[in-house]
Automatic annotation (TrEMBL):
Keyword Iron annotated: no
Transmembrane stretches, start-end: 115-137, 143-162
Signal peptide: none
Native species: Sphingomonas yantingensis
Protein's name according to its UniProt entry: Antibiotic biosynthesis monooxygenase
Taxonomic path: Bacteria, Pseudomonadati, Pseudomonadota, Alphaproteobacteria, Sphingomonadales
Keywords: Membrane, Transmembrane, Transmembrane helix
């Protein structure tokens, strides 16, 4: 007989998906949700698309023991291992009502990784823009040559480079030393 006093359980599976692997992730998410529906005590699931390439699947179970059994079961572990081929993940579980999770987000990116990826993207653009401006505005003082260079570089960064760079590198930026997603 089920323990009516046992607290409910919630599992959240967060994934940073490699660029280009979105279709694989969607198939995997469908499989994970089917596995949860087959588990004892399953109540429901929610898929949250936080930002492009970062998603969370939230599963609710009648009891903490049901959630724990599903999360520690062979089917969940096999699916999580399969997802590691195209995403970095973090699986969390809590008991009770309400529950609070710290979700991985872009602010958790490792600083040196963000620096390296940004520098690699900015350097060639900066070199090209500054070379063209020095040629076009050769007679002007360096500060006046830098004015249009800085405006062009800032615009290209804001609307072209950084959105693509973030999508391409998020999978790597948010990983800790063990390959799991960071939350802070």
């Amino acid at each position: 007989m089920p323990d009516r006093d046992a607290p409910p359980g919630t599992v959240i599976a967060s994934r940073a998906i490699q660029a280009g692997a979105e279709a694989r992730f969607e198939r995997w998410a469908d499989e994970l949700q089917a596995a949860a529906r087959d588990a004892a005590g399953y109540l429901g699931a929610i898929q949250l698309r936080q930002t492009q390439g970062l998603q969370h699947l939230v599963f609710r179970f009648e009891r903490e023991t049901d959630a724990r059994a599903w999360r520690e079961g062979d089917r969940f572990r096999a699916l999580a291992a399969a997802a590691d081929d195209f995403s970095a993940g973090l699986d969390q579980m809590q008991a009770g009502d309400p529950v609070r999770f710290e979700a991985p987000n872009d602010n958790a990116a490792v600083g040196w990784k963000r620096f390296v990826t940004t520098w690699i993207a900015v350097f060639p653009v900066l070199l090209a823009i500054s070379s063209v401006m020095r040629w076009l505005l050769a007679g002007l003082p360096p500060a006046l040559q830098l004015l249009p260079s800085s405006l062009i570089l800032t615009a290209v960064l804001q609307w072209v480079i950084l959105p693509r760079l973030q999508r391409w590198s998020r999978f790597w930026l948010l990983q800790d030393g063990d390959g799991k997603l960071r939350t802070n």
